[in-house]
């Protein structure tokens, strides 16, 4: 992949964390081709945290970008027409246009989301539906990938979306390296619920993160609900409830996503035959790996390896 120019477009009232996520993930590093520029309609941009931010690029740099990312902003006022024009132009020219959190409102106002599925922070879902009826709003997802238009749910879901973009561009290996540098959670599928009822364990309860880490180191072993619950020292019913509360998905779906992520990394970084990759990641047989690969990624393990092997 040649140099890929990323413009992070900070609008007035930008949320600092929403902006920091793509700025960090797409910053220049030897192993990735990204060249990131922080842009804004004005040289100084106000943030929701009370400080002002100096940007190094303007709307011309946005026009020159291969990927345009709009972080969340408050209050949700209609951006200036010049901003909407540059977003619509990027979409019309086939550039990749991305929003994090409430940045979706800028994309929607520019008409970029018309006829597409999209998401935003769960607190603003109904507002997005009401104000932009041409957008098919997804409520219970971390992010939505519509090809050249991608949107994420609230705040930290921007990490999931940006890592997904790196994974889509460069493969699982580089994406996992970036994630390790961020000390980010293991890969989360975009279809998981964005609103987790109890993201932090309540008093008197221990997090199941230890069991998740234990499972990640044993993906090649049979890991049933009973085995996981026994490791956590709780009943299967309690384990299922608490796991879903902590992660927003079921143990079996979480395991499948982890195994597919492991399979992708093995396909990129080893010459193992497909049947050995299937065994190493815990999917058993080559046929089973192919089935899940096609369902999740729309391709075969062999085609994936051909595309991403370095």
UniProtKB/TrEMBL annotation:
Keyword Metal-binding: no
Pfam families: DJ-1_PfpI (PF01965), HTH_18 (PF12833)
Residues in HTH araC/xylS-type domain copies: 209-307
InterPro entries: Class_I_gatase-like, DJ-1/PfpI, Homeodomain-like_sf, HTH_AraC, HTH_AraC-typ_CS, INH-QAR
Keyword tRNA-binding: no
Keywords in alphabetical order: DNA-binding, Transcription, Transcription regulation
Family annotation (PANTHER family): ARAC-FAMILY TRANSCRIPTIONAL REGULATOR, HTH-TYPE TRANSCRIPTIONAL REGULATOR RV1931C
The protein, known as: Helix-turn-helix domain-containing protein
């Amino acid at each position: 992949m040649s140099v890929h120019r990323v413009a992070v477009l900070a609008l007035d009232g930008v949320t600092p964390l929403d902006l920091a996520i793509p700025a960090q993930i797409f910053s220049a590093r030897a192993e990735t081709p990204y060249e990131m520029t922080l842009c804004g309609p004005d040289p100084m941009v106000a943030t929701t945290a009370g400080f002002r931010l100096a940007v190094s690029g303007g709307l011309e740099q946005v026009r020159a970008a291969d990927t345009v990312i709009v972080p969340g902003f408050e209050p949700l006022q209609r951006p200036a027409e010049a901003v909407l024009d540059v977003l619509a132009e990027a979409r019309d020219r086939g550039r990749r246009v991305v929003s994090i959190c409430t940045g979706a409102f800028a994309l929607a106002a520019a008409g970029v989301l018309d006829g597409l599925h999209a998401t935003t922070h769960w607190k603003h879902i109904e507002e997005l539906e009401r104000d932009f009826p041409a957008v098919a709003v997804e409520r219970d997802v971390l992010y939505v990938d519509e090809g050249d238009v991608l949107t994420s749910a609230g705040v930290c879901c921007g990490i999931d979306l940006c890592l997904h973009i790196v994974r889509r561009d460069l493969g699982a290996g580089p994406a996992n390296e970036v994630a390790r540098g961020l000390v980010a959670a293991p890969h989360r599928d975009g279809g998981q619920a964005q609103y987790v009822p109890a993201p932090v364990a309540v008093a008197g309860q221990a997090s199941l993160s230890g069991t998740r880490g234990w499972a990640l180191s044993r993906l090649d072993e049979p890991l049933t609900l009973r085995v996981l619950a026994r490791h956590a020292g709780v009943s299967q019913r309690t384990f299922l409830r608490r796991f879903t509360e902590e992660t927003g998905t079921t143990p079996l779906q979480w395991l499948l996503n982890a195994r597919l992520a492991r399979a992708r990394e093995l396909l990129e970084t080893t010459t193992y035959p497909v049947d050995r990759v299937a065994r190493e990641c815990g999917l058993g047989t080559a046929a089973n790996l192919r089935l899940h690969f096609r369902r999740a990624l729309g391709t075969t393990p062999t085609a994936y390896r051909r595309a991403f092997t370095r």
